[in-house]
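Lab notes, practical 5.
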Amino acid sequence: MKNKSYIGISFIVLVFGIIFVPKIIDRLSSGTTDTNRLHKPATKDENPVKVIGKAPKFSLTNQFGETFTQDDMKGKVYVLEFFFTTCPTICPIMNQNMKKVEQNFMSSDDFGIISITINPGYDTAEVLKDHAKHLGVRHKNWFFLTGNQDYIHDLSNKGFNLYAAQNDKIEDGNFEHSGFFALIDKNGNIRSRQDQQGNKIVYYEGLEETGVTALIQDIKVLLKEAQ
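Output from the prediction step:
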C-alpha cells in the first residue's frame, strides 16, 4: 500500500511539473510575474503626499503694501496659516513652529510661507512688517498679508475650511482661529498625507511637534516633484 501511495504522489508531482513549470518559466522570461508582490502592495502610490483639492484664489496686500495673489507663489511649495499679531494664546506657538519650518528651507527659492491676519483692522501692512521683523523672519518668500476682514474670514472658513472668527466674548484678542497649517504644491494644490487608516489628514497641526515634523518631511517630497 505504501508503494502505491508513493507512486501516486510521484505521478501528481510529475503532472504538475509537465503542466505548470513551463508556464512559470515563460512568465518569468516575459516579465509578467510580479516578483515584488510580497514586498509591497501593487496599488501603492509612491508619493505619500496626496492631492486634497485646488487652493482658493485670493488677492490681498503684503507687508510691503503691495497687492499679492496666489499667482505670486506659482511654482513654489508653500505653507499657509491664519493668525493675528496680538494673539496671546496659540499664535506665539505657531510662530515658533513656523520658524522651525523656515529654518529648514532657508536655501530654497522654491519654498515660501504665507501668514494671513484675521484682524486686519489692527494688522495693517506696516504692523505686519514690524511683526515680521520682531519674529526675525529671514526667508525672502515669507509674506504677511492683510485686507478686508469679511473677505479674509470667508477665505479662511469657506476657501480653506480653516476656522477663523471674531468673538467679542474672548477677553484677550477678540478673535479665534484654528492652529493648522495648509501645504500647497507648485501647481496650487492643497496637499497632505494619510493617517494609518488611509484617511486624508488635510491639514498639519501647527501646535504639535509631530505635525511640524510631518510638514517638513512632506515639503521635501513636494520640492522634488516636477512642475
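Observations recorded by the TA: The first helix runs from residue 2 to 19. The chain has a mean pLDDT of 83.
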